C-alpha cells in the first residue's frame, strides 16, 4: 500500500515514512484466532543467545494463520482485511459457509466480500483461490506454496512476493521464485493464486532507532569498535582496518560470501540458482 511521509518536524521524522494502512478494514483481530507471544530475546531452550540483537519490542499477539487451507470445496467470504504485527503482509479473515473462521495471508487485490475456495481439483483461476500446482495454468503468478503435500505453505509468504509457475512435467512442477531461483516442487502441492499483499512495505524508512527497538531489534555494535578479546575485528589504534583478508563473525567464522547451505537432499530439485549479485547460500 502507499507509503506516507510527514512534515519534517524532527530529524527522525524528516527521513522516516510510514504505511498508510488504507487497505485495513478492522483494527482489532479475531480474539479466538490469536495467542500470546512469549518473548525469548533470541535465546534457545538452554538460555543461550543463538540470534544476536534481539529483545524488547512492543507486545504482540500471534495471529493463527491457516497455511493449509484444508477446508476443500467449501466457499469462504472475505470478512475483513487486517494488519498483522508479526509479518509485512496483510491477513484476511475467512468466513466459511459452515460458520468456521480462519485467517489466511491476503493476496494483493483481495477485497472484503470476495469469495475464495480451496480445491483439490480444477476451478476458477481468481485471486485468493487455492489449488494443486498441477491444476494451475502455466505462467500464472502464485504464492503461499507448499514444499510437501499437506504440510502447509512454506514458500513465497513475504509482503509483495510472488512466484511464477513455469512448467509441470512428471511428478514435479517448476516454479520461479522471487529470488530468481528455479525449483521443482511436487505437483500435488497447493498454492494460492496471486501475489502477496502490501508490496510497498520494502519502501518504508524506519527513520530512527526507536522505531527499530519497537520491532524487537537491539543495537548492533561494530566489531572493529571492540577490543581484541571481544571480536576478531577488535583492537588497533585509530581508524584502522580489520586487518584480515575477509570479515569474520564474533566466533571467528567467515562472514561474507560463505556458503551456509551444504549438501541438502533437496539440492537436486534446484534447477537454477538465485540471481547473481545477491548472497548465495548454496
State the gist of this model.
This protein is mainly beta.
Report on this structure.
- With 282 residues, the protein is mainly β.
- It has a single domain, classed as Nucleic acid-binding proteins (OB fold (Dihydrolipoamide Acetyltransferase, E2P)).
- 4% of the residues lie in helices and 23% in strands.
- The chain has two helices and 17 strands.
- The protein has helices spanning 11-15, 209-214, and strands spanning 3-4, 18-19, 34-36, 61-63, 76-82, 91-96, 101-105, 115-116, 130-132, 141-143, 145-146, 153-155, 163-169, 172-176, 182-186, 190-193, 270-272.
- The chain has a seven-stranded antiparallel β-sheet, with no helix packed on it. A four-stranded antiparallel β-sheet has the order 7-6-5-8, with no helix packed on it.
- The longest helix has 6 residues, at 209-214.
What keyword list fits this structure?
282 residues, mainly beta, OB fold (Dihydrolipoamide Acetyltransferase, E2P), seven-stranded antiparallel beta sheet, four-stranded antiparallel beta sheet, globular
